[in-house]
Structures are given as C-alpha cells and as structure tokens.
Amino acid sequence: MRRAAILIALLAFLVPAAASAAVTEVQTELSPHTADNSPTRITSAEAIAAANRDPTLLAEKQKHPHLGPSAAIKEGHWEVAYFESGDELALVLVDAHSGEVLESWTGYQVSWKMARGYSGAFGHKLNAPYVWLPLCAIFLLGLVDWRRLWRVANLDLLVLLGFGVSHYFFNRAEIGVSVPLVYPVLLYLLGRALWIGLRGRGEGLRPAWPTMWIVVAALFLMGFRVGLNVADAGVVDVGYAGVVGADRIAHGELIYDNFPGDVSQGDTYGPVNYLAYLPFERIWPWSGHWDDVPAAHAASVIFDVAAFTLLLLIGMRIRPGPEGQRLAAVLAFGWAAYPYTAYVLESNSNDSLLAALLLATFLFAAKPLARGALLASATWAKFAPAVLAPMYLTYDRKGRSALVFALGFVLVTAAVLIWPAIDPGLKTFYDRTIASQAGRSSPFSIWGQTSLEPLRIAILAITGLASIAFAFIPKRKSLVQLAALSAALLLLLQLTLHHWFYLYIVWFYPLLLIALAASPARTSSPGLDRSRQPPHPSPRRLPRPFQTESASG
Fold first, then answer.
1. Which domains does the chain have, with CATH numbers?
2. How far apart are CA 235 and CA 98, in angstroms?
3. Within its chain, how far is the Cα of 313 from the centroid?
4. Which residue from 28, 222, 467, 479 lies 20 to 30 Å from 254 (Cα-Cα)?
5. Which of 69, 91, 92, 78 is nearest to 36 (CA)?
6. Per residue in 441-480, pLDDT tens?
7. Secondary structure of residue 108 in the 3-state scheme
C-alpha cells in the first residue's frame, strides 16, 4: 500500500505539470538572426562584395581560388554561398540593411547548422552555466559516497558528467574538438558495464543522504525540469517529426516518403515512434507549421515522467523492503538530476521514449510475452534495441519462454509494420528508415571526420558477436547483469554510429544507472536480486562466542 501511495502521489504531482507544459507557448530559436520582412537596403552585388572582404572567406580562397558566389535572402539576411565544382565550401551571412558580415563558415558548418553553436538549438536555458553547473553539483552531492571518496563508483559519476567537456566545445562550434572527446567517456562506460555484467556485481552507489532527502530532491528536480520546459524550451526536428507522423496516421495518410519540406527527412524512425505521439497530436493538433508544437512538449514531458516512474518500480523490483525503497529513490534521483536527461526534455526530442520503452522491457524481464512485445516496440521506434534481442530471448530459460518471447516480438512487429508494408511498401520503408540512417554522412562522429571506416566495421562486427555471445554468457543473469550488458551492447552500437549526439546518452544511461546503483550477490537467478544474506548458524549448535553471526541471522 505504501508503494502504491507513493506512486499515486508522484503521478498526481507530475502529470498536471505535463499538461501545462504542452499548452504554454514556447518560442523555438534555431538561429540568432530572426526573420525580417522589411525591404532590403543592399543589393545582392553589395552583399557579395561585403562577403568577399571577410577574412574567413579570404583564407578559404587561398585554398580554393576558383570559388564562385551565389547570394539569396534567407531568414531576413543575405546568405552568400561559395561553390567550387558544384560543392558548397563557404557561407557568409550578411545583414540585409547595413551590409555588415554577421557570420562566416567553412567546412562542416556550411551544411550543418547544428555545428555552428547557435544558442537555443538544443537544450535552451539548460546550457547556461548558472543552470548546468548547479545541476551537475546536485547530481554529485546526491549520489557520491562522501565517506569513501576514492571508490570507483564515485569516479563513475564523474565520468558520466564527462560528456560536459565535449559539450562545452560543441556549444563553441568547435566540433573538431568536441567529437573526439566523446569517445574516451563512451569507452570507459563500456568497460564498466562489461565489468559489472560479466563479473556479476559492482560496488553500488552509496549516497550519504537519507532516503527522504533523496525523494524530496528528486521530486523537486522533476518539477524544475517541467517548469523549465514550460518557460524556455524548443522543439528540435526529431520531436517535430514525431508530431507530423502522428498527424499522418490520424488522417489515414502515408507516413513514409510523405513529410513536408521543413522536415523532409523526419520519416527515418519506426512506426512506434509516430504512434507514441498520436494521443498528444489528437489533443493538440498539428497546425501544419513548425511552430511551438505543443503536442511535442506534452509527449516529451510524459516520456520523461514515464522513465522516472519506471525507475522507481525497478528499484522496488530488484530489492524487497526498505532497501528497495532506497534503491528506487536513488534511481529516480539519478534520472532527475542527470543533466543529459534534462537536455533531452528541454530539446523535446523522442529519445526519452526509447529510454522508457527499454526500462519497461527490463521491468517485465520475467514475463516473456511482455518482454518480447516491449522490446519489439522499442526496436520499431528507433531500431537500436534490436541488438538486445538475442540476450532477452534467452534471459529466462524456463520451459517455452523463448518461444513465448518470440511470439510477443512477432505479434507487435506484424501489427506495426502492416500499414507501411501495404503502402508505400517495405522497400520504401527500408530505404527511408534503416538504409537512410545507415548511409548517413555526418561530422558528428570520428567516422565522419576521419578515414577510419575499417575500424568502424570491425567494431560493428564485435557488436554483432557480443549480441549473440551475451545470449549465452553468463548462462544465468541477475537483473543487474541484464541491465549492465544491455547498456554495454547499446554503448558498443553507439561507438559505430555515423551520427552521434548527446541526446543519445539516455539510450543506455538508465540501464547503466541500474547496474551502477545496485550491488547484488555475485550470482542470482532471474527475478529478484536479493542481497546476500548472512549465514544462519545450525539450530543444533549455538555459535561460538567469537563468531559475528547472531542466532537470528
């Protein structure tokens, strides 16, 4: 009863805030230069002349002397693009009234706006130091074991915040620095996940705060995040695409190869992604334009609250009694305080949907039909969870559980693919989704900035082999091992992505958090992970005076 009361109180506190987030007007700022419909004061020739004097362009012309300009008015200013052999190599933005050069870009920043460091493109106010740094401090204050500072678990927490170093350079438009700095963090976390998953236990997080403090702090942070979403948050293309896809479903139209020009590549996700946005789009219908998109705000808040609630349930599932309540509080706090879960919420992306689906799959790990159905739902939302299928297939080896898991997976797969299979057909579906993402070229990975494709293929092969191997090794997995190895497979897969971004951290983070926070016995059968109990003395012989065990155990 106490658990039910706690969950009801949490939902009563958070769900109304989700609705208010959806109906509050929020301005999306993708560029510091707003549209201006007044007549221009300079001609295209004058704009080109101003751009030709820019030092960045002059330096680029030394490397490419045959650059040719082309000017056009966009978003209220002149954009002067420079081409050589059909390739756009430089871009200069010129004020349409004063003729002043506003920005100049070369390299990756020419075609990738998100590489230009525009404030407000992702995260909005969360990027401000006075918001980001206190959130990092709260994350550490609440989870660090201050009584034993040199524990590896404390280092894990610091490394989880290590993405912030890369993020700092990303915000400064220095992606040549920011991108490589991601990989040491991913590799460390991969190593820790493998260590816990294969060894069978970790050190566990041992916060110094009382459980009630952790619960209160987690609730406060969730309220703060929702409030920040209400006050200052934008909708990135991913969230906008979810609402557009839901609109297509609601009107019985094609999902794939049928998106508007302002998000023409938004149909790269599975049908479950768009179905998840459908209830919100029906309440707050799409206007037909990329405006405040209240349905995307509402969906993001609900996905975030769902992940928070599922972590509470998982904590009480892994541990019985007061230990479970404390673990649940730690997991919920770890979600609420971690800056990159808030980053997803403030960007109104769909990545927290994937986190919630994976957590639901994990929660129902002992139920093969539900486990298969939920993993299929996650797979047909963003495809990456497919790497977990072999391990979840064999997790519970009782009777016909593998067959029941496969049945649940196939039923959901058939249900969500029947529409795109009929129209526009599975080939178009594949081309617009899996093939499009696999063939994507992006500077947001070391693979897009270097010539290391053979190494990427090798890591991809290792990922495939690990996916199959973890179906059998270890033979019997505790829930904590399942969480750790799930995180490890997702981390391995992320190492191979052509396009990686900070929003993807929440794919593996909640599962890794479970593995880091809990400290189970070295071996445990599927189901509850109970702490190791002290040995009971024989009832026929009293314990010796020097023995530490009491008669009650």
1. 2-23+119-517 (no CATH), 44-111 (3.10.450)
2. 32
3. 20
4. 28
5. 78
6. 889 999 999 889 999 999 999 999 999 999 999 988 999 9
7. helix
